[in-house]
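Figure-free illustration: sequence to structure, shown twice.
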Amino acid sequence: MSSAKVLEGDFSRREDGFLSPVVKRDGINEAVRMPKFSYKARRRSGEVEEGMLELADRATVLAQLDRRGLFPMVVEASGGASVAAKKTGKTDRVTLSSASASTAASPLGQSFFNRKRKPSLQELATFTTQLANLLQAGMPLVDSLRSMASMESKGIGPEVGAQLRKEVSEGKNLSAAMGAQPLIFPEMYVSMVRAGEQSGALVEVLRRLADHYVRFAEVRHKVTSAMVYPAFVIGVGVVMIIFFMTWMLPRFMDIFKGMKVTLPLSTRMLMAVGDLATNWVIWAGTIAFVVAVGWLFVRYRATPQGHREIDAYKLRMPIVGKIISLSLFSQFARTLATLLQNGVPVLTALRITEQVLPNVVLKEAIARTRDAVTDGKSLAEPLERSKVFPRLMVDLVKIGEQTGDVPGALRNVAETYENELAVALRVVTTLIEPVLIVVIAVFVGFLLFGVLSAMFAITGSVAR
């Protein structure tokens, strides 16, 4: 009975330039017919190559493609394994590197599942830019992910890159590996990467993704920065008022109460307010009332009707409603434009955009638009019929449909509303600052007037 022995590290070079392992059977080298894998890879020049390989597993296929300088996009199993008694007169001895051979079994990345924090937009943009730079420099995907695992990327730990490298080495597409980490990579990110893999333009897609998240981070930063100063002024004013009412005013009132003098009305009002401010029953009742109102608000917002009515009111609010609307419209246009530009189907793009937006009213309008587009209608018509999106957006989308450049039209919409948002934020900030200062000055002035008028009354009584 013949015996076969696998020669570790021995491979026969086939006509296509790839390698097949060989076994030793009765002193004769025989090539092993391994499982078949169909692959689609991109050369360094950008050309796409497709073919079939017979190798032991996906990790070996990826190693072979890497050896040929090919960038793997799709690797799928397509056949079984058998041993073909093919005698080889000469065997080229090639030993795979230990790093490539053990990639699939690497335990790195398991600590990712302990990660709880979702990265910020800027952190995601930085990670994406770093990966795009490595791929554009000609580094294979597996090596790029290995480098990402060793790079210092704020907000996204090295275990993320290690987990991606492990799964890609096992044969998964990059988009599938990212889809297994939804806390780090949202559905929009995964869909665009998948579109980039299918079109062979992954680097360009990654750069557009990074630019997309950078723009969103800038808009969010503008809104946050505009609210910082008013919030600081309000906080300092509230602290000063509470300090004065609960600590300083009671001491003045103790002095005034010991005087047998008729105090002015403003002073008597201050004394009444001071008594309330130092009454812990009033404080406990106020806190209980605020907690109860907050609890009722949360419960009401948890209901579908309450959530919708609150989101609808946000869009109608004076001054602030305009800022919220501009932010949502720019986010809608920017997200949809980015998805469509990178080859994501329109229905999928609308579904992802619907999930990205936080406002229920806009979600419902996008869902109705998606249903109408499914029925064969244009994009602009259902947007106009929803009565939610502004006329400017509808008109620009119509022009984009007529010229065949809907993504470009949506980008123009996003830039228009982002510019309007920046102006609105400057106007609101400019108006809020003096209003807050005047309100706090009036309150502090009333306190001083009440104290000083009492002192004048006491001084006049003593003089008489």
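We now fold a second protein in the same way, so the two outputs can be compared directly.
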Amino acid sequence: MAPTILVVDDDPKWLRVVSLYLRAREYQVETALSGEEAIRKVSEAPPDVVIADIGMPGMDGYDLCRLLRQDPKTRTLPFIFLTARDDDADKVKARKIGSDDYLTKPCPLERLTQSVETVLDRLELARQIPLDRVGLSGRLEDVNLLDMIQMLELDQNTGALVLSHGERTGTLYFKNGVIVQADIRSPKREEPLFILLGWKTGRFLFLPNVAPERMPITASMANLLFQDLRVLEEHEQATLRGGMAGKPSSCEEPVPSPLGQVQIRLEDVAGRLRARQPTALPQIVRILVVGVAHSGKSELIKHLLKDLSQSRWVAVGVEEAWERYKTEVGRVRISRDTALHLIAIRSEKRFWPLWEQCLPGALGVLLLVNPASRTALDHAKAFLKARDTLAPGLPVQALLPAHAPPVELPGLQAADLSVGLLDDPVLRQQTLDRLLQQWLSANQPA
């Protein structure tokens, strides 16, 4: 049965436009011209998603969202604001009262569909792994940490998720499902949230109603991850600027192809970025490694780091820890003032907010796809569709497992697909080389 969407807006013309668009995409649509009418319809027949304006006479969108969040029967009902208000204060307020997304009119209706698909995907996942089945404690090997965090967000839990991984510990504090503080420590230093999400082994414990002494931040997990990424890049820039990034290895000439081609193209990329946007800051080149959970993202990053460390560059900040901790960020020095970051990103549709943060600033995408899995294939197609909206023209190279059946991926040609094993160095290096070649072709010097 198709999901039901309740659209709430006091503008009949806009209400009709949105309703017709969603019905054409096979959703069942109900409408309401006020917050009071919406509450009545929700009590009679709860929808799967609510889309509401903010500025309405009587009960506005904020009050509607707040009332739904206060009722145990509707507190997990996905809620999307679609409003003409584009003020940051409104966006922060919407997040605080529990909205799942905030879109500004006139919003591309394709973006609205993406938002609906994202919240429905998250809801379906939460139904599959409710907290009482996962338990309040256990082993990280038995759960997917990202999925558990999103489940805590969706169920609007308040408390502390305590994690341990060797000598490292981390605590994520939730308030009504929103991460309000992240405290991650190791014997050496504090570490970003991105590192914690790479932990595959260890223990977890959720303590309900535990709060930190102070709550300095209120942001979605996607925003926190992106903030950590920016902090990591700023640290990288400071390291390069200070001349502490290490010296190139003794291999001064490009090694035989295909790694030699990767070396040449990476240096060309760095040069063109410098020429296009001259800056005193060191350059960070970002390539995303995208796939569903357990698709091999971390393994691919690990292999690529080893490949590139055999070239004239050295891997920065990862050699000592990599074998023990499968981090989700790999860093490679390209030159004395440029570094390459390989960043693992999930391709499930519920990670749209993170795509929105990371895609526009990326150089390209290595997409891991398993055509034998219908679910994984659907997520890959949704990601490629989002790429067209968020970063049109961003180069993508897809890697498919050996003996994969023929598949068509939107926006990709046969030359954009590679089939084989991730532990094949020739396959990896040729795929990376083609990605760099795509970017260089699209960014020719003026």
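Summary for the second example: DSSP finds 15 helices and 16 strands in the chain.
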